[in-house]
Amino acid sequence: MKKYSILFLLVLVTLSSCKKSYVEKNDPNATTVEDFFTSENSVLLAVNAAYATLRSGDNIGEGSGLYTDQRSDDTGINDNQSNAGEPFQFGDFSILPSNSYLKRHWTSLYGTITQCNAITTNIDKATFTSNDTKQRYLAEAKFLRALIYFHLVRKWGDVPLVTTTLTSTSEIIANTYRQPQDAVYAQIVADLKDALNSNLPNLQPTGNAGRTSKAAINGLLGQVYLTMASTFDANKSENLTNANTYLTAAFNMRPFTTLSSVPYADVFDVTKKGTNPEMIFSIVNIAGNTTYRSNIAADNQPLGETINSLKIGLGVGGNVTPDLIQDYEPNDLRMAYSVKFATNAQIQDYFVTKYRDRTDLAGVNGWGGNDTPIMRFADIILLLAEVNAAQGNDVVAIQYLDMVRARAQMPLYAVARQTPAYSVKYPSLKLAILHERRVELAFEHKRWFDLLRTFNTTELVAYFRAKSQSNFGNARLTNFTTKDRFFPIPFDEYKLNPEKMYQNPGY
Predict the structure, then answer these.
(1) pLDDT confidence of 18, banded at 50, 70, 90?
(2) Do 285 and 369 contact (CB within 8 A), yes or no?
(3) How many Å apart are CA 80 and CA 50, to the nearest integer?
(4) Distance CA 172, CA 151 (A)
(5) CA–CA dist 271, 268 (Å, integer)
(6) Coil, helix or strand for 263?
(7) Which residues pair with 188 in a beta bridge?
(8) Less packed terminus of the chain by CB within 10 Å, N or C?
(9) pLDDT digits (tens, 9 = 90+) for 334-360
(10) What is the pTM of this model?
(11) What DSSP character marks residue 275?
(12) Half-sphere exposure (CA, 13 Å, Cβ side) for 451?
């Protein structure tokens, strides 16, 4: 019998329970998934565990830029030797189906989904003192499932779609097949609409930072509809209308009047994260905590630099492409905050400074407290600019675009477009919005998805091929072809059933 490595086998995972005698043959700390869901608290523990899966760099946590930013034109590594050269394959567009990092990413994402499926399948077995609490936990699980399926469908296209706990080998076999993108998107939309019908708050209070809210659900649903509009020719106008509706709903839940009232540096100031009014949804980290710490500040600090962390940097720090550096306009305060040039003779390159933690709590070990931003209001504002531009509402689109430019103290769009340097690089409003998202949201794992929405596959190939090779180091732009819109299906998954787990074209 084939070994099913796909994540549906989480039905076999056990959860903590009361201890029994050590002489018993069964795991004394284990109980079945079905037996675990008995109380309101057990469901809360399961929901917390689902949130915790996001933290991994193999998932969508702070170290997941390999699967997004390094796939784009923002970051990349020149080292084509370390770890058998597998990390280099992502930015070099030479990724193989056997890439172990790719398999870990697939596995981790389906791990989150399976955790959510366990909740949605078994929540009715638990006793709740309040139905509102039950509906809130169910909404959180559906939001997380939708979020992860959104990552999967954009990265791989057709993917297996499972929304219940599978309890037998025959069920696993029956569900191990790729389903069309439109079916996956339909499930994402259904989950998010269900989640909106809960009593979740518009925004979470400080004490619940890191949990979803109606603003986050609306924001994600709006982005899903906007992505559907660029993915499918059918119902494009309706998808754009829905995108505008839900993004506007998210925007109207903001706790501030104007974006300019929230300084850009404050958004990423680790000492102000508890009172940051711009953040909608993030992965929360705790400085000094061995389990929930952030490493991003220290990991991005190169030899000879001290701006990010009290930990002494010995490597090259975060990789930034010259292509991104050249896209910043003169005097953009976001560049001054986000990147710095390392002057050490062994480095002589730009590195990431957007995430800093030099607090005593982080200390010389670099165990920082930087949260991982997943969604913030500037993101929503620029998505509103994008959707309005796609609908032909240029005046409204520019109003949203200018909210972000004004906060960055950049000339408003009407002024900027009069300068040759700007108008030549961004001859259309569409490209101006794409540029603004790049410099505003750099290193927040948005760029690759922005490119997928902005260009069809042929245009995307032309976009990368038109760039200067000298701005990408050892990564070869000539490798970029139509195959690179999607990742290959990991080989271990493909070989389970080459017919039903068919490989993406070009691999």
Answers:
(1) very low
(2) yes
(3) 34
(4) 22
(5) 9
(6) coil
(7) none
(8) N
(9) 999 999 999 999 999 999 999 999 999
(10) 0.93
(11) G
(12) 23
Q: How far apart are the first and last CA of the chain?
A: 26
CA distances from 44 to 17, 88, 134, 302, 373 (A): 15, 39, 9, 41, 23
In this structure, which amino acid lies at residue 356?
Answer: R
Pair of tokens at residue 138: 């169910």
Q: Which residues contact 258 (CB under 8 A, 6 or more apart)?
A: 403, 406
C-beta of residue 112 within 8 angstroms of C-beta of residue 359: no
Give the span between the Cα atoms of 126 and 500, in whole angstroms. Answer: 36
The residue among 9, 30, 217, 191 whose CA lies nearest residue 118 is 9
Say what angle helices 447-454 and 457-465 make with each other, to 10 degrees.
Answer: 120
Q: Where are the alpha helices (DSSP H) in 157-263?
A: 169-175, 181-196, 214-231, 236-251
Distance of CA 259 to the CA centre of its chain: 22
Indicate the pLDDT class of residue 31, thresholds 50, 70 and 90. Answer: low
Helix and strand numbers (H, E) in the chain are: 21, 4
Distance (Å, rounded) from C-alpha 293 to C-alpha 284?
A: 9
At which residue do the structure tokens 């409003």 appear? 429
In whole angstroms, how far apart are CA 338 and each of 264, 335, 415? 10, 5, 25
Distance between CA atoms of residues 235 and 185, nearest Å: 13
